[in-house]
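User: quick one, sequence for these tokens?
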């Protein structure tokens, strides 16, 4: 049996097989070497690949066979290998700690195992009993692989990846490391559902291979993971919730959801509320305060009650506080049916040293005073009488969820009370809370989060419309003059009536605006209209004197007076409106009836009566009165020597003042006369759709909306910065309501369908016809006249008193005059004059001028002058209503003539 180099591959395979079978038959120890040698030779010829394999395997086999003869040597080598491996291998087993697991896995997914080919996927939409366990938190810089948190995962239907169970290797800091993820069968707690799983099943073993690194490098790795997680967490606030299972004894906090940190600056509160509150908390968190408390034997803890209507920022303040001071939030819902006193104590025991405990809507927790009173009544009916309110409350209530008032009382300042935390309770109805719950030392401060003041509305506007170029949406431009717009907006918002949340929602609907249309936008902004709520909050928290107020202790200064007094006090001198009560002869008009019916309910409900803008049939007329040079300073200011009398017409009914006039009760005051009623005021009701005597603030605001419409480019900004004012009175001539009906009646008569009219307008045609006849007989005018002083600073530089862009009357087409290339301003002016002498354009100009001179401004038809147009100085003329200005159209090389609203 000889081999031949010239054999084909098939032949050589056949030879190989026959050789192999004969070798098997005749194999003996002496010939085996020869057979192997021949086999190898043939294999080498078969393919170069075999040749290479043989070159590697042969020496290994020879070595093995040689070593077989020295068995003891092998065991020495194994021992040696074990010793070396022991020296170069360090191992850490990470116990089932969900947070650390998340952090390690997130870190490895982000860095070491980027290219790993074995991953575990969490399918979109997966929910488990505890989603925060299933979904990864953003413990490190979030990549696409590591979504933000459970909520977002569900929202975006994203897929989450983690390293699969098994063995993975990676390099850290130049060291070779391995990561073994093992899933061990979890010992199920009593009552836990079969099949439920969570990360506590997971064990991680980290190994480092290095002669010099060892455990230190593993420690370094874990430290690094922790610190990366911590720095990522810096921009996050963790919110923990209790994990309470109905049939389980387990009570603990979940591992918390990370939420983007919110800072206190994001919370828009009245500075009188916000600043002292923050200062108080800052002082408490100061380590010196802590050591003082400890030294003085005072329990180191703090409690606040944040109370006020829905959507005034109580919860937002709590989370922003946590964000500002890097604290975790532990959210407790006392109304949880699984919560009881013992569980609550356990949860408080497990709180970290420094954190915020947020107890939301404490009044609806089922342990409020109302409930306790009911219990008390029931007990009394059973003959168990006791006068001690606290004692009564403390008796374990047989509430459906086993939570009694003693639970929170103990954890707040009983022996079991933890130290170092800040407890924030929120409530919409603080009066219903039990006195014991909010007594001093349990609650150190009670803070009212009220409706939006002027300051809050202004700041909210500024916050929402101040954007960096990176934050701009597609098509959006950066707004200019934001403070001016903010002020104009806030002027239109009735103070102390609307919640910041409502204002925010309203403003967000305007978010996508181009900076070009800024003036149009300002005009668009009107006070939002509100439906009277039928359920829910019926009254603002009343703030009686400390003595009878269970909520406000002696430490809190209550906001004195009625809502109107408070709000007008808060607004200082900016606005004053006060009218005497209506005379009994006053006849309410149609528009007022709705408001009257709502005013029968609570003050709060009525104050939210619908603010209706002027309807077209009630369109007001504005009659500017020439400026009176005697009025140089602000009426009502010290040193005011003039009188507003000269500017006012004889037939004035009501002066609605946008400024703080002198004391209206003082008969010696020059303005006194105009603050007194002259006739009945029913028309005022009509335009405001509310009773101005019942709701002076709202009526005043509604009235000022007209002023705002009258002065599109006279924003009343920076009141306090100017002491010289240009005063101009605007008049609203409100048509008599019968005239409005007249118009409708006529229209209906034309259609000869009075039944339709009756059906649609609820109007008695015959009666209306009678009224109309009667009206015709009435002597004198059939409208009411209201006057508004409209002010603007005279001494201010344009930069101090920025004006909104001029408004062009929309329905007037500009007359375009051709511009000759290279003209100077002077030449342009001349060209304009010359062009006007051209008969066609002169006729047109004249027609427009005449029309405008007699036409009151249709405000809603105004639009700002387009951006690309530049005003030509000293080339204007005009009437009382309009200025005619000439503009250079940059792109079109033409001069246009526009009528601008004055
Ligand atoms: N003062 C405020 N400053 C900034 N944003 C606010 C303010 N008040 C409310 N908001 C916004 O309104 C929304 C609701 O606010 P939040 O939940 O804090 O009100 P709340 O007073 O806690 O209401 P509730 O009593 O219903 O719990 C949030 O989105 C928040 O951003």
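Assistant:
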């Amino acid at each position: 049996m000889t081999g031949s180099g010239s054999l084909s591959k098939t032949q050589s395979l056949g030879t190989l097989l026959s050789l192999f079978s004969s070798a098997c038959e005749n194999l003996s120890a002496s010939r085996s070497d020869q057979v192997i040698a021949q086999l190898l030779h043939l294999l080498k010829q078969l393919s170069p690949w075999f040749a290479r394999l043989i070159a590697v395997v042969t020496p290994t086999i020879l070595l093995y066979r040689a070593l077989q003869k020295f068995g003891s040597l092998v065991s020495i080598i194994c021992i040696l290998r074990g010793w070396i491996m022991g020296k170069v291998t360090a191992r850490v087993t990470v116990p089932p700690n969900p947070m650390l697991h998340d952090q390690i896995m997130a870190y490895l997914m982000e860095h070491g195992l980027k290219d790993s080919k074995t991953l575990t996927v969490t399918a979109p939409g997966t929910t488990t009993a505890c989603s925060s366990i299933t979904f990864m938190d953003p413990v490190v810089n979030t990549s696409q692989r590591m979504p933000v948190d459970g909520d977002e995962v569900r929202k975006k239907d994203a897929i989450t990846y983690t390293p699969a169970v098994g063995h993975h290797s990676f390099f850290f800091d130049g060291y070779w490391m391995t990561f073994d993820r093992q899933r061990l069968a979890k010992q199920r707690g009593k009552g836990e559902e079969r099949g439920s799983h969570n990360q506590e099943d997971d064990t991680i073993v980290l190994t480092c291979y290095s002669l010099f690194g060892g455990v230190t490098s593993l420690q370094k790795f874990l430290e690094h993971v922790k610190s990366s997680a911590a720095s990522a967490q810096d921009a996050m606030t963790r919110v923990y919730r209790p994990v309470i299972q109905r049939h389980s004894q387990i009570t603990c906090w979940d591992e918390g959801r990370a939420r983007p940190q919110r800072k206190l600056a994001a919370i828009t509160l009245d500075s009188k509320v916000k600043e002292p509150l923050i200062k108080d908390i800052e002082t408490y968190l100061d380590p010196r305060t802590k050591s003082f408390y400890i030294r003085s034997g005072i329990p180191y803890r703090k409690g606040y009650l944040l109370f006020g209507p829905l959507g005034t920022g109580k919860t937002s303040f709590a989370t922003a506080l946590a964000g500002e001071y890097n604290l975790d939030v532990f959210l407790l819902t006392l109304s949880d049916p699984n919560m009881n006193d013992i569980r609550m104590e356990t949860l408080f025991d497990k709180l970290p040293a420094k954190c915020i405990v947020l107890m939301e809507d404490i009044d609806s927790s089922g342990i409020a005073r109302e409930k306790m009173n009911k219990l008390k009544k029931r007990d009394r009916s059973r003959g168990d009488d006791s006068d001690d309110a606290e004692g009564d409350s403390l008796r374990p209530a047989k509430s459906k969820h086993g939570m009694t008032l003693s639970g929170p009382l103990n954890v707040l300042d009983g022996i079991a009370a933890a130290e170092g935390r800040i407890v924030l309770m929120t409530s919409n109805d603080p009066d219903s809370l039990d006195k014991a719950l909010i007594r001093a030392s349990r609650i150190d401060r009670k803070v009212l989060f009220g409706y939006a003041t002027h300051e809050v509305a202004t700041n909210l506007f500024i916050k929402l419309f101040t954007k960096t170029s990176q934050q701009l949406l597609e098509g959006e431009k950066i707004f200019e003059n934001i403070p001016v717009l903010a002020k104009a907006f806030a002027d239109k918002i009735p103070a102390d009536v609307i919640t910041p949340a409502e204002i925010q929602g309203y403003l967000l609907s305007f978010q996508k605006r181009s900076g070009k249309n800024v003036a149009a936008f300002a005009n668009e902004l009107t006070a939002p209209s509100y439906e009277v709520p039928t359920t829910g909050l019926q009254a603002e928290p009343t703030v009686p004197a400390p003595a009878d107020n269970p909520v406000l202790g002696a430490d809190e200064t209550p906001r004195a007076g009625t809502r109107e007094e408070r709000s007008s006090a808060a607004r200082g001198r900016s606005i004053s409106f006060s009218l005497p009560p209506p005379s009994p002869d006053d006849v309410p008009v149609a528009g007022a009836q709705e408001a009257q019916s709502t005013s029968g309910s609570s003050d709060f409900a009525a104050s939210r009566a619908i603010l209706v803008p002027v309807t077209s049939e009630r369109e007001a007329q504005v009659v500017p009165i020439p400026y009176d040079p005697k009025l140089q300073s602000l009426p009502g200011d010290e040193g005011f020597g003039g009188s507003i009398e000269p500017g006012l017409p004889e037939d004035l009914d009501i002066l609605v003042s946008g400024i703080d006039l002198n004391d209206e009760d003082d008969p010696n005051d020059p303005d006194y006369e105009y603050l007194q009623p002259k006739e009945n005021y029913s028309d005022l009701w009509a335009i405001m759709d509310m009773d101005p005597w019942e709701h002076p603030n709202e009526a005043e605001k509604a009235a000022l909306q007209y002023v705002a419409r009258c002065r599109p480019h006279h924003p009343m900004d920076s009141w306090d910065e100017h002491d010289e004012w240009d005063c101009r009175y605007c008049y609203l001539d409100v048509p008599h309501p019968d005239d409005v009906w007249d118009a409708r009646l006529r229209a209906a008569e034309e259609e000869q369908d009075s039944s339709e009219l009756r059906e649609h307008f609820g109007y008695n045609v015959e009666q209306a016809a009678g009224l109309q006849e009667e009206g015709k007989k009435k002597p004198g005018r059939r409208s009411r006249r209201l006057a508004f002083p409209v002010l603007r600073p005279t001494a201010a530089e344009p930069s101090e008193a920025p004006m909104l862009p001029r408004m062009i009357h929309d329905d007037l087409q500009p007359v375009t005059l051709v511009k000759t290339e290279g003209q100077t301003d002077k030449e342009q002016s001349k060209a304009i004059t010359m062009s006007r002498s051209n008969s066609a354009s002169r006729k047109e100009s004249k027609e427009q001028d005449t029309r405008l001179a007699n036409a009151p401004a249709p405000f809603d038809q105004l639009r700002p002058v387009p951006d690309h147009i530049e005003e030509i100085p000293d080339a204007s003329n005009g009437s009382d209503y309009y200025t005619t200005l000439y503009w250079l159209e940059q792109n079109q090389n033409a001069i246009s003539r526009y009528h601008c609203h004055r």
